């Protein structure tokens, strides 16, 4: 057997490619787990759930599973009973790897029932299936089916677009999300350095600390020259860095700051420009193994407000509901073909449409348009669109207007059912201070939004329910808004 990925790990460790974590420990974990799989069933690898927040355990286990060509399902350690039940409704694993998961062992497949027919076989032979979760923010968890080939195709498009041969990644995002996983894959496969830090908040604390005592995190930071690294952030993380001048100045030293995971707001982007942060806003998703559209930092600093150009490994079409291509500045559905495109969703794989040449095409849950320069602009999600009194309203526009008031720290606009309007706009917001009220916000919006776009409900909260990538959990948000509305006296709009 050719132990290609284990051999690559050994080679990379000799090159000292890791910062902040122990490569030798990872290699030992990978060897141990690979042997465990081989001893279990060499001819019939079982399905593995990998649920571990520890980066050394995660990478070691991941490499072992890929080497053994086992179907591996990445799981979020923060999932609760409801999320796990969704997963086990259609997945019976043979192995579960992770800490504090004893309560999940009851879902393991019993040895007597582990037949070959139960295994996951729709993939091409000699490829490991890598299932990456998506959709948790919408309330329905699904696993996209990737392979080593789709993930490395994303890397190839990335390196060609940025004109680099090695990718040095400074990772503060969880590896069990595609945004964190791809940072590992980029550095591992291109000969670059991977620096992993457990929390961006810890970095902020170190940067702002006046203590002379050198702690481990501070030591690692001192060993890294940001000018040679890519760092990936979500908007909420970027916002925290820009709140403190010393942190913003440190961030501005990075060669490129990739921004994704959730839509950024205009004020955040403008503040990043003020600090001369070399930001690269991206558009992509789990289905495409991260970004397929990116704005280069030079264009961002010059004032470009778009998501940028399509990366070399992808093709994007803007179409109407009938699938007909639309022209420049015409808003439509975003249809994607890419070498990095997932094979489908587990378990059926038949979830993406086929074009005339039988190549798979994915229709994103987003609306956008190409401008005259070939840059893509994202308008908002189709599923988030609010139809109130027969008028179409995109939450992003409402949220942007509310943010410009300077009265909120965070906000999300959603639809609540309404007997008169069909849907009514509700703004769930975090006030900047105690004096902020719905009345003060309404006054500020009079000249900023058309009347039909102004929220009919204002729901104050201490924080919005977001996941590690900064995405809103809309199911939780809807429940919060509904509970608030039911607690209010009945009024007539």
From TrEMBL:
<keyword id="KW-0436">Ligase</keyword>
<dbReference type="Pfam" id="PF13193">
    <property type="entry name" value="AMP-binding_C"/>
</dbReference>
<dbReference type="InterPro" id="IPR000873">
    <property type="entry name" value="AMP-dep_synth/lig_dom"/>
</dbReference>
<feature type="domain" description="AMP-dependent synthetase/ligase">
    <location>
        <begin position="100"/>
        <end position="346"/>
    </location>
</feature>
<dbReference type="InterPro" id="IPR045851">
    <property type="entry name" value="AMP-bd_C_sf"/>
</dbReference>
<feature type="domain" description="AMP-binding enzyme C-terminal">
    <location>
        <begin position="397"/>
        <end position="471"/>
    </location>
</feature>
<dbReference type="InterPro" id="IPR042099">
    <property type="entry name" value="ANL_N_sf"/>
</dbReference>
<dbReference type="InterPro" id="IPR025110">
    <property type="entry name" value="AMP-bd_C"/>
</dbReference>
<comment type="similarity">
    <text>Belongs to the ATP-dependent AMP-binding enzyme family.</text>
</comment>
<dbReference type="Pfam" id="PF00501">
    <property type="entry name" value="AMP-binding"/>
</dbReference>
<protein>
    <submittedName>
        <fullName>2-succinylbenzoate--CoA ligase</fullName>
    </submittedName>
</protein>
<dbReference type="GO" id="GO:0016874">
    <property type="term" value="F:ligase activity"/>
</dbReference>
């Amino acid at each position: 057997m050719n132990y290609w990925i284990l051999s690559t790990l050994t080679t990379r460790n000799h090159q000292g490619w890791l910062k902040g974590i122990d490569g030798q420990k990872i290699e030992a974990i990978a060897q141990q787990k690979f042997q465990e799989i081989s001893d279990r069933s060499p001819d019939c690898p079982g399905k593995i759930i990998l649920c571990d927040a520890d980066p050394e355990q995660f990478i070691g286990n991941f490499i072992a599973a890929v080497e053994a060509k086992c179907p591996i399902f990445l799981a979020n350690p923060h999932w609760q009973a409801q999320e796990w039940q969704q997963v086990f409704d259609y997945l019976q694993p043979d192995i579960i790897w992770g800490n504090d998961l004893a309560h999940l062992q009851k879902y393991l497949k019993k040895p007597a029932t582990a037949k070959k027919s139960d295994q996951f076989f729709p993939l091409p032979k000699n490829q490991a299936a890598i299932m990456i979760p998506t959709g948790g923010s919408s309330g329905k968890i699904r696993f996209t089916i990737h392979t080593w080939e789709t993930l490395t195709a994303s890397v190839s498009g990335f390196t060609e677009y940025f004109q680099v041969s090695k990718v040095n990644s400074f990772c503060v995002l969880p590896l069990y999300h595609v945004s964190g996983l791809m940072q590992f894959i980029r550095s591992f496969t291109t000969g670059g350095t991977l620096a992993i830090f457990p929390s961006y908040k810890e970095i902020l604390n170190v940067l702002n600390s006046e203590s002379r005592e050198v702690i481990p995190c501070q030591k690692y930071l001192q060993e890294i020259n940001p000018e040679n690294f890519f760092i990936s952030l979500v908007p909420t993380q970027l916002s925290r860095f820009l709140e403190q001048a010393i942190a913003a100045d440190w961030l501005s030293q990075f060669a490129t700051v990739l921004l994704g995971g959730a839509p950024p707001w205009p004020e955040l982007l403008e503040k990043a420009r003020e600090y001369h942060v070399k930001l690269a806003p991206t558009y992509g998703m789990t289905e495409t193994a991260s970004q397929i559209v990116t704005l280069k930092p030079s264009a961002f600093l010059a004032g470009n407000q778009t998501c940028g150009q399509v990366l070399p490994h992808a093709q994007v079409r803007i179409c109407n509901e009938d699938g007909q291509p639309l022209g420049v500045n015409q808003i439509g559905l975003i249809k994607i073909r890419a070498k990095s495109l997932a094979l489908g969703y587990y378990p059926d794989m038949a979830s993406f449409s086929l074009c005339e040449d039988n190549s798979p095409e994915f229709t994103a849950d987003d609306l956008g348009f190409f401008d005259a320069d070939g840059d893509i602009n994202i308008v908002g999600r189709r599923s988030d669109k609010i139809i109130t009194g027969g008028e179409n309203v995109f939450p992003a526009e409402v949220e942007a207007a509310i943010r410009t008031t300077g009265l909120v720290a965070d906000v999300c606009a959603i639809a609540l059912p309404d007997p008169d309007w069909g849907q009514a706009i509700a703004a769930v917001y975090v006030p900047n201070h105690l004096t902020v009220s719905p009345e003060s916000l309404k006054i500020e919006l009079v000249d900023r939004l058309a009347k039909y776009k102004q929220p009919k409900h204002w729901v104050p909260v201490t924080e919005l329910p977001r996941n590690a990538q900064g995405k809103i959990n809309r199911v939780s948000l809807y429940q919060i808004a509904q509970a608030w509305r039911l607690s209010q006296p009945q009024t007539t709009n």
